C-alpha cells in the first residue's frame, strides 16, 4: 500500500490547515466566489508538484483540465522561476487539456486511467469541475440529472486518486449569496460540491488587497481554524 503524500501550496499557513499540504489519494475542493484565488492555487500546485520531496513536491507531473479558458502559461513561467524550476521544463511537465463541455470533461478523465501511470502524473486539476454541469443542466428541472452526472464524475476522480496515489484538485465557484443555492442538492449549504463524495473542502474568501482567507469545512481529522495567504507576482505565499 502506497502511503499518502502531500504537495505544498506555497503558503505554510494554508499547508498547516491542510495537515501539511494537498494530499494524494483524495479530492481537494477549493470553493469560493470569483477572484478568491482558486485558479491561482491550481497554477501553483501544478508547479509545486514538480519540486523534489524535500521542497514540498512529489517530483511529478500535472494534468490541468481547464473548463473556463483561464489557464495562463505566463503564470506558470513566473511561478516556476520563483521556486527555482527551469520555466520551460516546468511547462513541459504540465499536460494542459481544455474541456469544451461536460461529456468532453468526463471522457478526458476516463482517458487519464491509461495516461496517468505512463507519465508520472501526481496531480490532476479540474478548474472548474462544476461550470459545464451548471451551464448544461440549468434550473430545478435538471437538478437530479446534474447531480447524478456530477457525482459519477467525482467518484471516477476519487478512483483515479486512490488507484495512482495522486492528488485531485477541483475548483467550484460559488456566488456571494449562499441563498442562491438553497434547495440545490448538488451543493451543500455553504456551497461546496463534494457533499456526497469523500474529500477535503476548502472555503476561500477575500480579505484586504491580495490577502485571502482559507478555512477547512467538515473535516474532523484536520485542525480547525483559518489560514491567511497572499497572491503575489511569485504566486501563493504566506
Ligand atoms: P473565478 O475563476 O472567477 O471564480 O476566480 P478565482 O477564484 O479562480 O480567482 P483567480 O485565482 O483567477 O484570481 C484571484 C486573484 O489572483 C485575482 O483577483 C488577482 O488579484 C490575483 N492574480 C491573478 N493573476 C495574477 C498575477 O499574474 N499576478 C498577481 N500578483 N496576482 C494575480
Ligand atoms: Mg478561476
From TrEMBL:
<keyword id="KW-0238">DNA-binding</keyword>
<feature type="domain" description="RecA family profile 2">
    <location>
        <begin position="179"/>
        <end position="238"/>
    </location>
</feature>
<keyword id="KW-0547">Nucleotide-binding</keyword>
<keyword id="KW-0227">DNA damage</keyword>
<feature type="domain" description="RecA family profile 1">
    <location>
        <begin position="3"/>
        <end position="174"/>
    </location>
</feature>
<dbReference type="GO" id="GO:0140664">
    <property type="term" value="F:ATP-dependent DNA damage sensor activity"/>
</dbReference>
<keyword id="KW-0067">ATP-binding</keyword>
<comment type="similarity">
    <text>Belongs to the eukaryotic RecA-like protein family.</text>
</comment>
<comment type="function">
    <text>Involved in DNA repair and in homologous recombination. Binds and assemble on single-stranded DNA to form a nucleoprotein filament. Hydrolyzes ATP in a ssDNA-dependent manner and promotes DNA strand exchange between homologous DNA molecules.</text>
</comment>
<dbReference type="GO" id="GO:0006281">
    <property type="term" value="P:DNA repair"/>
</dbReference>
<dbReference type="GO" id="GO:0006310">
    <property type="term" value="P:DNA recombination"/>
</dbReference>
<dbReference type="GO" id="GO:0005524">
    <property type="term" value="F:ATP binding"/>
</dbReference>
<dbReference type="GO" id="GO:0003684">
    <property type="term" value="F:damaged DNA binding"/>
</dbReference>
<protein>
    <recommendedName>
        <fullName>DNA repair and recombination protein RadA</fullName>
    </recommendedName>
</protein>
<keyword id="KW-0233">DNA recombination</keyword>
